[in-house]
Specification:
By secondary structure, this protein is α+β, with helices and mostly antiparallel strands. The chain is 41% helix and 14% strand. Belongs to the pseudomonas-type ThrB family.
């Protein structure tokens, strides 16, 4: 997808004059944004990314700014938004809410290797160790409170077996998670490979925090593991799984409840993406022409997590 709101160099030069970020030397549309208009902006001093918010909940943007400010302030590899000379990060450009970010190096890892899994596991562990102290609040908009009512919208499109699987999984989740208080903190909320940038095996940055929220830390970790450590057939790759989790646990050990509920959380977030992808395909397709992500991939992943059963966690004291 391309840019939805085109910008001229003159518009961006005038916008940049409000920051202490140098003089515009080049402006480039970013072709592969999916929801917002994104531009690479280069000045005589630095490289940046300009985002115009085209959709979504604009009233949520101050939360994302606060979260990114907090994480960047703790030296995590995230693009902390630039603030203008008045101290404002969230601005308006071409009538749209706008944020300017530092440009992080690298590209997203299509087939992540063990070293990259170790790196992202450690980064999320460090992020969660500090994000437990973040004081902002935004409830998780994709947890069981969302899954349960939304699943009714897709049942009609599923085979009888899949209808039963979805309903049974929701019952299992309600049963195992009820009455348990898992460690909380700020979450990325969608830490797929394509929301990271790697320069070789070095993590350049974690981007796209627009699913950011507060909630169960292992919700975030299980999204990461399902996407980064599954093979094409949905089975977990043991080496990537061990590397990612050992690195995470070395930064933020899990408590007993988290260890016990870990296999259930992997299943719940597989269900979450099976459902969100089904909703995109059948119920609420995007206005613009995007190829929807395949729900069947996460249906398969859920089946694999069920087959795998009580997955052991690696010992954080043993380097993978
Ligand atoms: N801070 C950044 N540094 C480098 N590249 C970025 C940064 N932010 C976004 N990008 C690039 O722009 C693309 C689109 O950004 P993203 O925030 O994911 O938009 P969308 O929500 O529209 O998909 C990303 O895939 C990435 O290539
Ligand atoms: N990474 C997701 C896409 C974003 O999901 P959403 O539910 O927050 O819209 C995927 O691979 O499905």
């Amino acid at each position: 997808m391309a840019v939805f709101t085109p910008l001229s160099e003159a518009q961006v030069a005038e916008f940049l004059a409000e920051y202490d970020a140098g003089t515009l030397t080049s402006l480039e549309d970013v072709a592969h944004g999916t929801e917002n208009s994104t531009f690479f902006v280069t000045t005589d001093r630095r490289e940046m990314v300009l985002t115009l918010f085209e959709q979504g909940e604009h009233e949520e943007l101050p939360f994302f700014v606060e979260l990114l400010d907090f994480l960047a302030g703790h030296q995590l590899p995230v693009p902390g938004p630039l603030h203008d000379r008045e101290g404002q990060a969230l601005k308006t450009l071409a009538g749209k809410p706008a944020l300017l970010f530092p440009r992080m190096p690298g590209k997203w890892p299509v087939s992540p290797n063990v070293a990259q899994c170790r790196e992202i596991g450690a980064a999320l562990g460090r992020m969660h160790a500090v994000s437990q102290h973040f004081t902002g609040q935004r409830p998780n908009t994709r947890d069981l409170h969302w899954i349960k009512p939304m699943h009714h919208k897709v049942l009609a499109y599923l085979s009888p077996e899949d209808q039963a699987l979805m309903a049974d999984e929701i019952d299992v989740c309600e049963d195992v998670f009820s009455g348990v208080d898992l460690p909380q903190g700020a979450l990325h909320g969608d830490l797929f490979r394509d929301n990271t940038l790697f320069d070789g095996d070095r993590l350049g940055g974690i981007i796209d925090f627009y699913n950011g929220c507060t909630g169960d830390l292992i919700f975030d970790l299980s999204i990461l593991v399902n996407d980064w450590c599954s093979n094409d057939d949905g089975r977990l790759d043991q080496a990537r799984y061990d590397a990612l989790l050992s690195a995470y646990l070395a930064e933020r050990p899990m408590n007993a409840d988290e260890r016990r509920l870990w296999p259930s959380m992997l299943r719940m977030t597989a269900l979450r993406y099976w459902l969100s992808r089904l909703l995109v395909v059948y119920v609420d397709p995007p206005a613009h022409s995007l190829t929807p992500k395949d729900p069947a991939q996460y249906r398969q992943l859920l089946g694999r997590r069920i087959e795998e059963g009580a997955l052991p966690l690696p010992d954080a004291t043993q380097p993978a």
